[in-house]
Each structure stands twice: as C-alpha cells, then as structure tokens.
Amino acid sequence: MQIFRTFFKKEIFAEVLLPDKATTKVAIFCDGAPSAPRNRDMMGFFAKKGYAAFHIRYRGMWESKGLFLQKSLDQDLIDVIDALPKGFTDLWTKKRYAIAPKHIVLVGASFGGPAVILASRDPRVNKVIAISPVVDWRKDGKAERMKDWIPFMLEAYSMAYRASRARWNKLLNGMFYNPVAHAQEIDGSKIFILHAKDDDVVPFIPIRQFARKIKATLVARSVGGHLRTSLITQPILWKKISKFLKASSRSMTTRSQVSS
C-alpha cells in the first residue's frame, strides 16, 4: 500500500491510501485547525482494515484550491463523496480509480468535528467518529477564546487557511458550520463522540448537552485535555468503536435535508 495524491472537484486536495483488495468501504479524515496535515498512521490503520482512506484538505487550506470558509466545510465532504464513483486520478502515475462506496465512515477532530457531524445528514454516510469536536462556536474554552483565536489564525496561518476576517467571523453567528443549529436534522445513532471532561479548548458541557439531545454515543474521559485522533487506535477504545461501526443506525434524514 502506498499513499498517493489527488484532487476532487478540481479544488479539494486529498491523500489516498487504498487497501490491497478492492473495497466498497471508505474512511475520510478531517483535520482540526490549526494543524499540519499528518494523518498517515490513521490512514494506514483503516486501510489495513479494508477501508479506502482519504485525508482531505478543506477548500482554501494547505494544498487545496479555493477560499477557506466560503462554504460550510461539510460541503467539501459531500463533494468528495459525490466524486468517488465518478473517479479520481493519482497525480503522479495518472492512473484512474473509482469507488462505489457502500459503507462510509467520517473521522473528524476539533475544528473538523462540525464537518463530519453535519455531513452525517447525508444518508450515504453510515458512521461518524468525532474527537473533541466543536458543536457550538459560541461556547469558548478557557484556553482558546474566539475573539483571540480568529486574529491569531489571520496572522499566523494566513496562507495555510486562506480566509478573510469576514469569513472567519461567520463562525460567530451561531448558524454557519455549527452543529447545534442543525441538531434536529442529525441522527445521533450515526455519531460516536470522544471527549475529555478537562478539555480547556472545547468545553465538555456543551458536548454532553448536544450528545444527549441527538442521542449520540458519548465516551467521556475524566482527563486527557484536547484529545487527538490517534487515540482511536488504542485497542480498548477501538473495540468500542468497531462495535459501534458495525451497529445499525436509525434513518431519520433524507438527502433533501442536507444544507448548511
């Protein structure tokens, strides 16, 4: 197995790792912000379990084209899912691939949590694993307050996340890219949330309230701070996640409900 690079919709860059055998299982990984793109170990973990693994960069970030936060980031995921059966190209070898997925798992951490949670409204998405996800941008953590974080991102990551202050400020309106604003549209049986009670970046109480409202699976750790995606490969936790991935979900959403 070897990772290669591709584009979807001519804008969304992705690293791709395909398993040795043909598969209809897909795992898509979404980063937090700020973060450096480094999910290769996770891609390998899922590929060994028979998943075609895709680590995407949202539009307007790192290698991707376009403007960051011009669209709600869950739309990037939906666009990738739309494109999979149409095909994608290894940029080095020019070899063409296509996948008609029958089981799609989305994995998102922190800033990427809203992307995977909101994209779960698409009926093609079977399961979501959200690690320390933001569920309400209006609820600040002690260590990162939005009034300080947005100016920092503009100054320190201006080329990695290509967004104007106005687009960053959309996060503050409570409706844009914000899971709590769409809670009634979300099937919680699709969603597995891992969070630590002592997280000072994304506070725990809004997570607990959101998980209860949508009836999601919530695994709460007493300590751990702002958790990393790599935790899900730990044998004890993976046993729980593996069981969750195999369980059936309620089908309360329709494609027409997917909007942000």
Counting helices, strands and paired strands, the structural category is alpha/beta
Task: Label the overall shape.
Answer: globular
Number of helices: 7
Strand proportion = 15-25%
Main sheet characteristics: 8 strands, mixed
How many domains make up the coordinates? 1
Helix content: 25-40%
Give the ordered list of helices and strands: EEEHEHEEEHEHHEHEH
Low-confidence stretches: 252-260
User: How many beta strands in the DSSP annotation?
Assistant: 10
The CATH topology is Rossmann fold
Whole-number mean pLDDT: 93
Rg for CA atoms: 17 Å
Assigned CATH superfamily? Alpha/Beta hydrolase fold, catalytic domain
Q: What is the rounded distance between the termini? A: 36 Å
Write the layout of secondary structure elements.
Elements: E1 4-8, E2 12-17, E3 25-30, H1 40-48, E4 52-56, H2 74-83, E5 88-89, E6 96-97, E7 103-109, H3 113-119, E8 127-131, H4 146-156, H5 165-169, E9 191-196, H6 204-214, E10 217-221, H7 235-246
Parallel strand pairs: 3-4, 3-7, 7-8, 8-9, 9-10
Antiparallel strand pairs: 1-2, 2-4, 5-6
Helix pairs in contact: 2-3
